[in-house]
Specification:
Rossmann fold, eight-stranded mixed sheet, alpha+beta
Length: 721
């Protein structure tokens, strides 16, 4: 079969049409046959070298369900709310306890919703997608659930004190959409409600306000995006300074317009949304009386003689910027360097908190704006003196820690949740009060919870290295392995993990499953921070966009070859793993660099880049990869499309493909296509498709443990001596 452009038609398939029918009888029969074959092959005994598959699965499940995990909470009023899964509650419990009790280490929880019981009662495979509590009493909640774990979900209203669904409450049926509180009688609604209300990616185009008792069709349309947009997203921002309604219209992943309405539902119904005049490629966050503008591209402002580089975070007085954008000066809150970039920002009641990464290691900075009167001053009088202070490092000696920050009660105070984690350091939850007046800043840190150590890391070393890519770029990577001080020494089975897309950074984090299933058993684990990611800001991401995609793949194989050159492993002992866009990375390692790897684990992947834009949410990724319908774009896209690069005559390493039937983001046809082609050519290929689970690949920890066990079993069998 060949693939050609046809006038007005998508590119031709390189696989049978029935594989594109997600739940078609013929497709599911094909899937089940290969699932059974893979489970039989990987479940068969293999001497004394490795534990049986079922034993490995139980070990992994024990990690996933460990009762010592930190229960992450959201504080609302007097209570800390948590969603929890364990062996007895695989689909989970939504629960709460008094915040004071949580800080004291309490483990007595009031169960509000039992998702397992709900699934049984309703005959559904419900997967939790979140709860929104109604300010200020927090007595009502909007609960979002997904049937089987897909992106499509439904939302319903729940009475917290009565612990029951409200029969005549707000309800949104299953779709890729959202429902969120404005007040007790009004919600923001984004929902496909007709042929003209949905983007080519399947996301809603309309932002509406739904009044209590009103049908979805009668909701008030506030703003509608163009038909070719990616989607529209709406919600409410509540701060000490007041309430705003925020609507984002996404043209693509990296282009958006942000609209504001000051006030609540009644103002939103009576007032035209106002656009924030920031660059469309920037990320805009209205906060208090400020517009925070995080740049992806250069911003040249000749009218005020300012030029700002990509990756810069700017603050502008919001109202003045909207009224007279050409005369308002910007205050730089962060300017990137070659080594340090902005990773995330969040806010407490009075402070802005920046998380930066320097050579893939995180740092925290707290900023306090000048007096509120200054933010509204005329441009000529604009005050730039934001107070700046670094958050002290947590009281731990571990190296290569990732620190993540979130506000405890952003409407009330400046206390912060801080979570620290590293490759050998389990997650630790701290409560930090930056306003606390103490001589020793370490006293501002209070240890709240610490996750248990779930694998033996006593002799495990974490080191950072740099490989040199084809164009001379230094590519960082982390290596995690037991120290080799005795006999035998030399190359070991090594797993190289990567993603390299969508501005996503791979930062150090604790992964007990990898520790127990791989590192404890003598394997080397490596994470490659390749271009396409966000480890060095927008420049690092844009260096591998569209026609430059090959740089991500050159970076990854440069790391692979550096590992061999350093004697860490051999090509035959080197495996590679990645999912989603990382699955596309794996497909290219398999087809472009087959001699550099002994095994490839390719998960929920994109693989048919000639048709990705026609499958489910694929059209929203054209900005990342290019448009296959454009012959000029197709010229470079086909150079990284694994199903087109596959050559039946080439010797390839062992391949395992995993996906999910319920994945409504990346179509399972991608994995099915390469599975079909490789199987037909007699290649060594394993295929497993979980029938539910969505893009995560699994709907609960038992399914997750089974999927993971298959992957680890595959890697050990293919890479061990």
């Amino acid at each position: 079969m060949t693939q050609e452009h046809a006038e007005g038609q998508p590119l031709h398939r390189l696989f049978p049409e029935f594989l594109e029918e997600i739940t078609g009888d013929e497709a599911l029969e094909w899937v089940r046959e290969r699932n059974a074959r893979t489970e039989a092959l990987l479940g068969s005994p293999q001497g004394d070298l490795f534990p049986p598959l079922g034993e490995l699965e139980d070990q992994i499940l024990g990690v996933l369900d460990d009762p010592g995990r930190i229960p992450a909470v959201k504080v609302r009023g007097d209570y800390a709310y948590n969603f929890w899964t364990d062996a007895d509650n695989p689909r989970g419990l939504w629960r709460r306890q008094l915040f004071t009790a949580y800080l004291d280490g309490g483990d007595e929880w009031e169960v509000l919703i039992d998702v397992d019981a709900l699934s049984k009662d309703e005959g559904k495979s419900w997967v939790w997608r979140g709860a929104q509590l109604l300010y200020p009493d927090y007595d009502r909640a909007l609960i979002t659930l997904s049937d089987g774990g897909s992106d499509a979900n439904e939302t319903r209203e729940f009475s917290v004190p009565q612990k029951r669904w409200l029969k005549d409450g707000f309800f949104r049926p299953e779709a890729k959409g959202s429902l969120s509180w404005i007040d007790v009688d009004h919600c923001w609604l984004t929902q496909p409600m007709g042929p003209d209300s949905t983007s080519p990616s399947g996301y809603p185009l309309e932002a509406c306000i739904l009044r209590r008792g009103q049908s979805l069709e009668d909701s008030a349309l506030i703003l509608k995006a163009r038909p070719d947009s990616m989607g529209t997203f709406a919600g409410q921002s509540r701060e000490r300074q007041g309430t705003k309604q925020i609507i984002s219209v996404m043209e693509d992943f990296y282009t958006q317009d942000t609209y504001l309405i000051w006030g609540g539902a009644h103002e939103a119904l009576d007032t035209q949304p106002v656009a924030v005049p920031a660059p469309r490629s920037s990320e805009v966050t209205p906060w208090g009386n400020w517009a925070l503008v995080w740049l992806r591209d250069p911003w040249i402002r000749p009218e005020v003689e300012e030029t700002w580089e990509p990756g810069t975070l700017l603050a502008l007085p919001l109202q003045s910027f909207i009224d007279t954008p050409e005369s308002v000066h910007a205050t730089p809150l962060f300017i990137p360097t070659e080594e340090e970039v902005l990773e995330a920002l969040t806010a407490s009641a009075d402070n802005l908190i920046l998380t930066t990464i320097r050579n893939v290691v995180s740092r925290i900075t707290i900023l306090t704006p000048p007096a509120e009167a200054a933010s509204d001053a005329p441009a000529s009088e604009h005050v730039r003196n934001w107070d700046r202070r670094s958050l002290t490092t947590p009281p731990t000696s571990a190296s290569y820690l990732t620190t993540s920050v979130g506000p405890v009660s952003p409407l009330e105070d400046n206390r912060l949740w801080v979570v620290t984690s590293g490759y050998t350091q389990p997650s630790t939850l701290w409560l930090v009060d930056p306003d606390q007046d103490v001589e020793d800043p370490a006293q501002q840190w209070t240890l709240v919870r610490q996750a248990p150590t779930l694998f033996n890391a006593k002799n495990v070393e974490v080191t950072q290295h740099f490989a040199i890519s084809d164009d001379g770029t230094r590519v960082p990577y982390f290596q995690v392995a037991q120290s080799q001080t005795g006999d035998p020494e030399g190359p070991r089975p090594t797993l190289l993990y990567g993603y390299g897309g969508f501005d996503v950074s791979l930062l150090p984090s604790y992964n007990a499953v990898t520790g127990r299933a791989w590192i404890e058993k003598g394997g080397v684990f490596v994470v490659a921070n390749i271009r396409g990611g966000g480890e060095y800001g927008p420049r690092w991401h844009k260096a591998a966009l569209r026609e430059k995609r090959h740089r991500a793949y050159e970076d990854f194989v440069a790391v692979a070859r550096d590992l061999v050159a350093r004697g860490v492993t051999t090509s035959a002992q080197l495996g590679a793993q990645g999912g989603s866009n990382g699955g596309l990375l794996m497909g290219n390692m398999y087809t472009q660099y087959p001699r550099d790897f002994g095994a490839i684990l390719c998960q929920v992947p994109l693989l048919d880049m000639g048709r990705f834009h026609t499958l489910l949410a694929g059209s929203s990724w054209v900005a990342e990869y290019g448009d296959p319908e454009d012959p000029k774009d197709w010229e470079f896209i086909q150079t990284f499309s694994p199903v087109h690069l596959f050559d039946p005559e080439t010797d390839y390493p062992a391949l395992m493909l995993t996906t999910s039937t319920k994945d409504d983001r990346v179509h399972p046809a991608h994995a099915r296509a390469l599975g079909y082609l490789t199987e037909g050519a007699g290649k060594r290929v394993y295929y497993f498709e979980n029938i539910e689970g969505g893009h995560a690949g699994a709907a609960d920890n038992r399914q997750r443990a089974h999927n993971l066990a298959l992957g680890w079993e595959f890697l050990w069998r293919e890479l061990a001596d």
